[in-house]
Amino acid sequence: MSRTFGAIIIGDEILSGKRQDKHFAKIAEMLGVRGLRLSWVEYLGDDRERLAATFKRTMAAGDVVFSCGGIGNTPDDHTRQAVAAALGVGLELHPEGYEELRARFAGEEVTDQRRQLVTFPAGVRIIPNPFNRIPGFTANDHYFVPGFPQMAHPMIEWALDTYYRDLFQPVDGVVEKAFLLTGPNAYESALLDLMERIVRDYPALRLFSLPSLTGHERKHLELGVEGEPGLVDRAMEEIRREIEWRGIVWTWRP
């Protein structure tokens, strides 16, 4: 995979705990079934200056970013204006977006307030919204969609399938295996040399280490790798021999 994928999730209501985020796990899932991986996620409030600075930074980094929330027309929606500031352009009525808006409100007046819904930074492209035809927009590999999951998630899938299909990786040939390690030496610091050796010797695999606690006591350490089945089996056999030599008790993770 040659691109880094990130997510920006916007809304004071999420940071305050009034609403629970529904985007992070779903975006990771949508990438995962296409053989891709989410590298980072940021949560931001409804602060226009902070949003603009963040978009400017992530656009300069060249990441593919899915941004959820803040593209409406109420006073607490700042994403459109923040993106315009990051791009150094003004806002303008998007002609294709306006046609979608007219279709959405066929037979009704398209008021100035409704026009704001498709007043986007100059030069962007629209993202179709299959839920209600009020589009999002995209610029510089950033995809700006509503905060509503039933709208945002199909729009993100459309962006992935339209622009990044050439990056998709087969997932049928990828497996993940892990041991649950217990005992006095089953902790990460004691196994760093082993982990570093596996990472060095098997660069095509992804190693993971997940400790589990019960109160203040260690319960177990989940240690494993993900990747091509043959390599996974070789790495796991090497891990098994080493942890047995160190007297660490193991079972297969369910």
Summarize the helices and strands and which ones pair or pack.
Elements: E1 5-10, H1 12-15, H2 24-32, E2 38-44, H3 48-61, E3 64-68, H4 79-87, E4 91-93, H5 95-104, H6 112-115, E5 119-121, E6 125-127, E7 136-139, E8 142-145, H7 149-163, E9 175-182, H8 192-201, E10 206-214, E11 217-227, H9 229-245, E12 249-252
Parallel strand pairs: 1-2, 1-3, 3-8
Antiparallel strand pairs: 4-5, 6-7, 7-8, 9-11, 9-12, 10-11
From the alpha-carbon coordinates, what is the Rg to the nearest angstrom? 23 Å
Biggest sheet descriptor: 6 strands, mixed
Strand fraction band? 25-35%
| Number of E-state strands | 12
Series of secondary-structure elements, N-terminal to C-terminal: EHHEHEHEHHEEEEHEHEEHE
Q: What's the N-to-C terminus distance?
A: 29 Å
Helix content: 25-40%
Q: Describe the strand arrangement of the main beta sheet, using strand numbers.
A: 2-1-3-8-7-6
Task: Please tell me what the overall shape is.
Answer: elongated
Q: What is the mean predicted local confidence, pLDDT?
A: 94
- The total of helices stands at 9
- What class would the helix/strand composition place it in? alpha/beta
Low-confidence residue ranges: none
Report on the structure:
This protein is of the alpha/beta class and 254 residues long. It has nine helices and twelve strands. The strands form three sheets. Strands 2-1-3-8-7-6 form a six-stranded mixed β-sheet, with helices on both faces. The protein has a four-stranded antiparallel β-sheet with strand order 10-11-9-12. The longest helix is centred in the C-terminal third of the chain and has 17 residues. 31% of the residues are buried. The mean pLDDT is 94.
